[in-house]
Amino acid sequence: MNVTVSRSVEKWFVSIQTQREVEQAIPNGGAVGIDMSVARFATLSGGAFISPAHGFNLHEFSSNWKKAKTRVQKIHARIANVRRDFLHKHSTRGC
Length: 95
What we know:
Radius of gyration: 18 Å
Strand content: 15-25%
Largest sheet: 3 strands, antiparallel
Structural class: alpha+beta
Helix content: 10-25%
Number of strands: 5
Number of helices: 1
Shape: flat
Oligomer: single chain
């Protein structure tokens, strides 16, 4: 349906949008409440919770960032990818 080409730091990405039929994740069309906070990424209405991703702490930049602008951009791109992957995995997971 749609194609988007983008560049982040030194890498090129292609995003392809398609359409498909999907089963309902929640039986009988029920609703789920989600509370998002700082201590926990999300708390579901059933009492279950999802812990925040701490993997991005490994990729924080050093104090020498002024001399390594490209390196810092790559590190922040990795952090964004970890967060994006975490959000995608938990938002598409069946309840």
